[in-house]
UniProtKB/TrEMBL annotation, chain A:
Organism: Kingdonia uniflora
Enzyme Commission number(s): 2.1.2.10
Binding of substrate, residues: E235
Source organism, top-level taxon: Eukaryota
Subcellular location: Mitochondrion
UniProtKB keywords: Aminotransferase, Mitochondrion, Transferase, Transit peptide
Protein name: Aminomethyltransferase
Main location: mitochondrion
GO molecular-function terms, A-Z: aminomethyltransferase activity; transaminase activity
Oligomeric and partner information: The glycine cleavage system is composed of four proteins: P, T, L and H.
Reactions performed catalytically: N(6)-[(R)-S(8)-aminomethyldihydrolipoyl]-L-lysyl-[protein] + (6S)-5,6,7,8-tetrahydrofolate = N(6)-[(R)-dihydrolipoyl]-L-lysyl-[protein] + (6R)-5,10-methylene-5,6,7,8-tetrahydrofolate + NH4(+)
GO BP terms in the entry: glycine catabolic process
Automatic annotation (TrEMBL), chain B:
Cofactor or coenzyme needed: (R)-lipoate
Protein name: Glycine cleavage system H protein
Lineage top rank: taxon: Eukaryota
Residue ranges constituting the Lipoyl-binding domain according to the UniProt record: 45-127
Taxonomy of the source species: Eukaryota, Viridiplantae, Streptophyta, Embryophyta, Tracheophyta
Matching InterPro entries: 2-oxoA_DH_lipoyl-BS, Biotin_lipoyl, GCV_H, GCV_H/Fam206, GCV_H_sub, Single_hybrid_motif
HAMAP family given in the database record: GcvH (MF_00272)
Record's function text: The H protein shuttles the methylamine group of glycine from the P protein to the T protein.
Record-listed N6-lipoyllysine modification sites: K86
Keywords, in A-Z order: Lipoyl, Mitochondrion, Transit peptide
Family under the similarity heading: Belongs to the GcvH family.
Species per Swiss-Prot/TrEMBL record: Kingdonia uniflora
Cellular compartments annotated: Mitochondrion
Any one Gene Ontology cellular component term annotated for this protein: mitochondrion
Length: 408, 154
């Protein structure tokens, strides 16, 4: 599957609107819904009006009673609470954990200060992205990372295979998959003041990318100041038996301003923030350099290499990649994944990988890949949608300024 | 929800039946296709739009792709598309004929389809080529049941 892309998901829902072969569709839905995994917040979502849809093998809320437009705007104005427990958190432990992980990712993990993290990419031998992941160095012998739900099985297979080989050579590393925990994302300007009500730790001293293990609402949580919306905010890994209480407490402390928000608005928010959705904007055959994540290849890694696909990736850094991920504004209908991008003469330049109508900017935004040379901001292109060409222009990302909490 | 409020306020004026369990509204004098478009027949011409149920499922509509006046439409075939924040959906014509008018207002105000699916949010007008086709469509009661069944099956 394509990583559980949200756009595919949206299409599958609305295609049913024009579906005439109703019986087969009904059968298929019944068969798959029984197999879907539920987070511990499932009943809580349903009770709050969550429209549950299949996503990467899980039944997740695509939206609640608020429209996707309103939810997106409210996140930036007040705040959003997302259940992202479908994502897979895992810990690597052992004195060689860092040396092991650095064979699989592009980031300088050894160089991270304890209690800080970064976005990184798991690569294959060809330099392609197996998944993107947020990696935190808890201590020198404990790494915590979160990978995508849709990539869980292949990521774990990949890590496990390399771990066996590493351990066979005497390396000290083991793992724990945090299936006993749930993950909540609290995002937006009210995230910090609301969360502060539920913990004694001073959140004003915790900056973007930092990680603490602390008591929140009476439970020991892993707290990362990060997110997927472009706003300030946190991801809170909470023991699953405390997840519903924590969700209730966060909503209550916000006095109704922080709203439960589903995957639909989450997709609009991450797109506005210019962030990749794995399975749409990044795939096995795309390198992190092509995806615009050159910054995530640590300086030391550029000189030393030593990760899967380093030869391809380091060469692309030196020579420049053949294709690049860029942003677009466009007229006409919102571009979606796989819309073709052409020049004035109709020659192919690339393809849109995700796009939509920006609730904040009130116009179409998209990202996609273009041949190097046509990738500069301001370049005019045509985007082909249902056989018609519409005006597009290459634009810098993020589309909406990010508001990460950084030391001034 | 803003829409629900609208539906209950205007239901008496439009003679829309609003079922008690909060299902989307239907208008009594229209005919419905199973792909969730409505048609209002007036002599040899017909007005076409998408139903309240369809707009409710799609969410905020941000773009309506309109066909050209003069183009032919065929029962069950796509003539345009609606784009919401969430997704794209084809619009199928419930009847065959020739397009005699399109709702140009939708180019600047696509949200009319959400706010007024049976009135200001109409999409095209068609000169019918086969008035008999209308008998293939559902009436309001049948369409309401159809929507309930479809919603409860997923």
């Amino acid at each position: 599957m394509r990583g559980g892309g949200l756009w595919q998901l949206g299409q599958s829902i609305t295609r049913r609107l024009s579906q005439t072969d109703k019986k087969s569709i009904t059968r298929r839905c019944f068969a798959s819904e029984a197999d879907l995994k539920k987070t511990v917040l499932y009943d809580f979502h349903v009770a709050h009006g969550g429209k549950m849809v299949p996503f990467a093998g899980w039944s997740m809320p695509i939206q609640y009673k608020d429209s996707i437009m309103d939810s997106t705007l409210n996140c930036r104005e007040n705040g959003s609470l997302f259940d992202v427990s479908h994502m897979c958190g895992l810990s690597l432990k052992g004195k060689n954990s860092i040396a092991f992980l650095e064979k699989l990712v592009i980031g300088d993990i050894a160089g991270l200060a304890p209690g800080t993290g970064t976005l990184s990419v798991l690569t294959n031998e060809k330099g392609g992205a197996i998944d993107d992941t947020v990696i935190t160095k808890v201590t020198d012998d404990h790494i915590y990372l979160v990978v995508n739900a849709g990539c869980r099985d292949k990521d774990l297979d990949h890590i496990e295979g390399h771990m066996k080989a590493f351990k066979a050579k005497g390396g000290d590393v083991g793992w724990h998959i945090h299936d006993e925990r749930s993950l909540l994302a609290l995002q937006g300007p009210l995230a910090a003041p609301v969360l502060q009500h539920l913990t004694k730790d001073d959140l004003s001293k915790m900056y973007f990318g930092e990680f603490h293990i602390l008591d929140i609402n009476g439970a020991e949580c892993f707290l990362t100041r990060t997110g997927y919306t472009g706003e300030d905010g946190f991801e809170i890994s909470v023991p699953s038996e405390h997840a519903v209480d924590l969700a209730k407490a966060l909503l209550e402390k916000s006095e109704g301003k922080i709203r439960l928000t589903g995957l639909g608005a989450r997709d609009s928010l991450r797109l506005e923030a210019g962030l990749c959705l794995y399975g749409n904007d990044m795939e096995q055959h795309v390198t992190p350099i092509e995806a615009g994540l050159t910054w995530a290849v640590g300086k030391r890694r550029r000189s030393e290499g030593g990760f899967l696909g380093a030869d391809v990736i380091l060469k692309q850094i030196a020579d420049g990649p053949a294709i690049r991920r860029v942003g677009f504004f466009s007229s006409g209908p919102p571009p979606r994944g796989h819309s073709e991008i052409v020049d004035d003469q109709g020659s192919a330049l690339g393809e849109v990988t995700s796009g939509g109508f920006s609730p904040c900017l009130k116009k179409n935004i998209a990202m996609g890949y273009l041949k190097s040379g046509s990738h500069k901001a301001g370049t005019k292109v045509k985007i082909v949608i249902r056989g018609k060409s519409y005006e597009g222009v290459v634009t810098k990302m993020p589309f909406v300024p990010t508001k990460y909490y950084k030391p001034t | 929800m803003a829409f629900r409020l609208w539906a209950s306020k205007t239901s008496s004026y439009l003679r829309i039946s609003v079922p008690h369990r909060g299902f989307a509204s239907v208008a009594k004098d229209l005919k419905y296709a199973d792909s969730h478009e409505w048609v209002k027949v007036d002599g040899t011409s017909a007005t076409i739009g998408i139903t309240d149920h369809a707009q409710d499922h799609l969410g905020d509509i941000v773009y309506v792709e309109l066909p050209e006046v003069g183009a032919a439409v065929k029962q069950g075939s796509s003539f345009g598309a609606v784009e919401s924040v969430k997704a794209t959906s084809d619009i199928n014509s419930p009847v065959s004929g020739k397009i005699i008018d399109v709702n140009a207002e939708l180019s600047s105000s696509p949200g009319l389809v959400n706010g007024s699916p049976y009135n200001d949010g109409w999409i095209i007008k068609v000169e019918l080529s086969d008035a008999g086709e209308v008998s293939n469509l559902m009436d309001a009661d049948k369409y309401s049941k159809f929507c309930e069944e479809e919603d409860s099956s997923h």
